[in-house]
Give the backbone structure.
Amino acid sequence: MTTPDFPRLHPHHSPAKPGEPSERAPAADPNAFIATLHRIGKGAAADGQPWPERHQMPGRCMALADADCALASQRVTLQLLLAAERVRQNGTEAEYVGDRVMEGLIMACLAMNAQANARMRPDG
């Protein structure tokens, strides 16, 4: 198996017992968030890693990684929308985020869906 070009996105942990060898090195990069954002901007998928399919053309890998990022962000936005709707139904009026925020979340989901749809279609 080949070594990935990018470091792991998820944090590394020290062993439970001090004497045990660590199979994972501790995370040392304090700028991991910024570095991951730069990798995503250069075509990494939502997990910060390059698209895993090796048989795709580089442009297609970047398009699939962009679609993966759009779908991951759409999932987060839909979770926010669901939480806001549950608060509207079950919470107090002061806790509700408001109709304008709800509409903004819906419009964000539509835009991310359109982005993922456009990037999934092959050029040509």
